[in-house]
């Protein structure tokens, strides 16, 4: 992928072109991309409200990203901006050590390089999010071909760094397909800068609506190109109408979140670090799922790429990149997960799935021989990055932010009046009034919506789960992987292991049952044979309620009132209407939901919370458009219409 010239210049093997010159590469970046986009002035501005977004083509060694980050650090204190987002595309991602070697010639970037490389892991095709909360910075690194990935990107950007290899060596990255995507993704007055003044590049950008100018290039390069998109931003016709977002610069200063489990804590945190004051209401229900003492997380691989596999892979990388910032060392462990194949997880699915997702050994390894620790002829998959989490600690740490206030009380109903949401207790006393309301109260969401509309925009099922908390006197069991079959067993943490769990939709009994305990222990003792069961005893049981959607994906986003949705979008699924342009229907004002986290909420809540904040604050999304359509709350209304047509 990378070759090195004698003087240390990194050269791309694919394109036979240099990444940058070690003598003056950083200065060139500063000249072409930072000055070319007037970034210092714009990042220091006190006029822009919330976010500044940069989109780059050609991540390479990350030099431009690190230089933009360095500038952001210098401007942040003078600026009214809360977030810098840097979205970049790279077809051939470099190894960590190659990036280190390339960038270490610029000592002024060494601190940022370390912070970045600490998170540079578990990259998979598509969008990989890096959140640097203390820096108010997000990097979305899209791995793959920009031509295919750009249509999957949503949101609007303020500046473009066009830094692919030279147009003569990599013409696809400079063609019309790309410039039309840049147009689609441009905010009003979005700028671009590039080192090339090639005629073909000028023509494409100009016909996409950018006004162009040539300015002096860096060093011996006489000229470079900059430009501005002066028109109003385009409506995003790439998306089905109800997924579109109408740009708004009205950023709320305050929001109320209902539910202080992982869903509520994650969205509250995502808003709080962006400078929004959040009040979180919760009634401390004993069946709160987020009280599960230790939860396990690993990806769910399907034969081909599906929303399930992509979503869980994205969430896994995202959680691991964030945990070291959020959690004390003893409240999670990346111990690896050994998952057995079986009736529910056929071997063929694993074999084909690993190939289809181009998973490296860092992400997944098929195991055909498991030895004596599992029943004869068992096969499985090992996820080196499978991890367990102390869920109550994660919830507590997320909520521990100066912009978050916790309130206790049961919300019995909600009502929208005079541009505000009012929250009432069961006795009809007003608990809170708020401009923006986020329902993250799991099994309590549907009953609140029933008070607003006759028909529910989605359905949520409550599923009871029981697990066993075990005491293990064998200290070596801390080094075990997580064992997963039809049940799972964590390694021990200070002598405690968790053995779960049951699923029951029809019996929501809050009390622990000996029948469930026997079911869990019997399966585990007959399957996880390497465990010293004779040194283990049951300490206690845990019962909680999961809230699950029919397709087992969470619901994340705004909520549409069912009746107007049906009126506006009926006929949308008919072949004769394939080309018909359906209007955008405003969702219910300032009402959002994050729920239906099902049995994977510990894995998915962190990324889910960030995505909801991105939607609420009109930021570019850190997942693919197609994946977002699987998470949007109105997908159920849409499917209902299509099924009836
Ligand atoms: C036994 C069991 C084992 C599990 N194991 C795993 C695992 O290994 N890995 C994994 O990823 N996930 C696991 N999960 C799932 C995970 O715990 C959940 O997906 C996640 O915790 C859900 O978070 P939540 O915030 O949506 O819901 P909850 O944690 O249930 O929080 C909802 C909160 O809303 C509050 N609330 C509800 N209604 C109201 C109201 N009207 N007014 C005020 N407050 C209200 C409740 O008191 C509660 O605190 C498990 C779940 C169970 C039950």
Automatic annotation (TrEMBL):
Keywords: Cytoplasm, FAD, Flavoprotein, Methyltransferase, Multifunctional enzyme, Oxidoreductase, S-adenosyl-L-methionine, Transferase, tRNA processing. Residues 258-645 are annotated as: FAD-dependent cmnm(5)s(2)U34 oxidoreductase. Its EC number is 2.1.1.61, 1.5.-.-. Residues 1-230 are annotated as: tRNA (mnm(5)s(2)U34)-methyltransferase. It is found in: Cytoplasm. NCBIfam families: MnmC_Cterm, PRK01747.1-2, tRNA_MNMC2. In the N-terminal section; belongs to the methyltransferase superfamily. tRNA (mnm(5)s(2)U34)-methyltransferase family. In the C-terminal section; belongs to the DAO family. This is tRNA 5-methylaminomethyl-2-thiouridine biosynthesis bifunctional protein MnmC. The gene is mnmC.
């Amino acid at each position: 992928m990378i070759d090195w010239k004698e003087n240390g210049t990194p050269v791309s093997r694919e394109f036979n072109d240099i990444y940058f010159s070690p003598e003056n590469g950083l200065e060139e970046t500063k000249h072409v991309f930072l000055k070319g986009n007037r970034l210092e002035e714009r990042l220091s501005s006190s006029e822009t409200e919330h976010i500044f977004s940069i989109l780059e083509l050609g991540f390479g060694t990350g030099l431009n990203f690190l230089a933009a980050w360095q500038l952001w650090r210098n401007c942040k204190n003078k600026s009214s901006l809360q977030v810098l987002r840097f979205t970049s595309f790279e077809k051939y991602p470099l190894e960590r050590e190659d990036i280190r070697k390339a960038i270490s010639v610029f000592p002024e970037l060494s601190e940022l390089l370390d912070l970045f490389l600490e998170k540079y892991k578990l990259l998979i095709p598509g969008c990989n999010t890096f959140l640097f909360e203390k820096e108010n910075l997000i990097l979305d690194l899209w791995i793959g071909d920009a031509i295919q990935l750009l249509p999957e990107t949503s949101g609007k950007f303020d500046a473009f760094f066009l830094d692919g290899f030279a147009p003569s060596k990599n013409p696809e990255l400079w063609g019309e397909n790309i410039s039309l995507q840049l147009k689609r993704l441009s905010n009003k007055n979005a700028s671009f800068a590039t080192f090339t003044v090639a005629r073909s590049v000028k023509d494409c950008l100009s016909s996409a609506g950018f006004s162009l100018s040539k300015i002096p290039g860096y060093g011996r390069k006489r000229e470079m190109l900059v430009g501005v998109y002066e028109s109003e931003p385009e409506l995003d016709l790439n998306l089905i109408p109800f997924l579109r977002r109408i740009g708004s610069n009205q950023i709320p200063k305050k929001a109320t979140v209902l539910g202080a489990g992982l869903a509520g804590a994650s969205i509250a945190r995502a808003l709080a670090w962006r400078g929004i004051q959040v009040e979180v209401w919760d009634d401390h229900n004993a069946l709160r799922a987020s009280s599960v003492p230790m939860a396990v997380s690993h990806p769910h691989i399907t034969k081909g790429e599906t929303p399930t596999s992509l979503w869980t892979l994205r969430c896994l990388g995202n959680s691991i990149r964030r945990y070291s910032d959020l959690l004390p060392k003893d409240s999670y462990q990346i111990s690896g997960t050994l998952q057995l194949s079986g009736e529910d997880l056929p071997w063929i699915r694993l074999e084909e799935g690993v190939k289809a997702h181009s998973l490296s050994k860092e992400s997944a390894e098929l195991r055909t021989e498991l030895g004596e620790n599992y029943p004869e002829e068992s096969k499985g998959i090992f996820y080196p990055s499978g991890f367990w989490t102390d869920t109550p600690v994660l919830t507590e740490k997320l909520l521990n932010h100066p912009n978050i206030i916790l309130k206790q009380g049961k919300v019995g109903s909600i009502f929208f009046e005079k541009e505000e949401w009012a929250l009432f207790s069961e006795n009809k006393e007003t608990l809170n009034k708020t401009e923006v309301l986020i329902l993250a109260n799991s099994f309590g969401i549907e009953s609140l919506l029933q008070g607003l509309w006759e028909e529910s925009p989605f359905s949520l099922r409550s599923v009871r789960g029981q697990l066993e908390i075990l005491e293990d006197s064998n200290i070596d069991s801390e080094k075990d992987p997580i064992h997963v079959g039809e049940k799972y067993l964590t390694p021990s943490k200070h002598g405690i292991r968790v053995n779960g769990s049951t699923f029951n939709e029809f019996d929501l009994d809050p009390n622990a049952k000996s029948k469930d305990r026997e079911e869990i222990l019997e399966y585990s003792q007959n399957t996880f044979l390497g465990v010293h069961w004779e040194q283990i005893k049951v300490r206690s049981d845990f019962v909680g309620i999961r809230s699950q959607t029919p397709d087992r994906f969470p619901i994340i986003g705004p909520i549409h009132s069912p009746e107007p949705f049906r009126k506006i979008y009926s006929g949308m699924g008919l072949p004769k209407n394939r080309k018909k342009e359906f209007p955008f229907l405003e969702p219910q004002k300032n009402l959002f939901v994050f729920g239906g986290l099902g049995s994977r909420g510990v894995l998915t809540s962190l990324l889910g919370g960030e995505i909801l904040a991105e939607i609420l604050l009109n930021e570019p999304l850190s997942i693919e458009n197609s994946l977002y359509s699987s998470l949007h709350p109105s997908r159920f209304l849409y499917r209902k219409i299509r099924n009836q047509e």
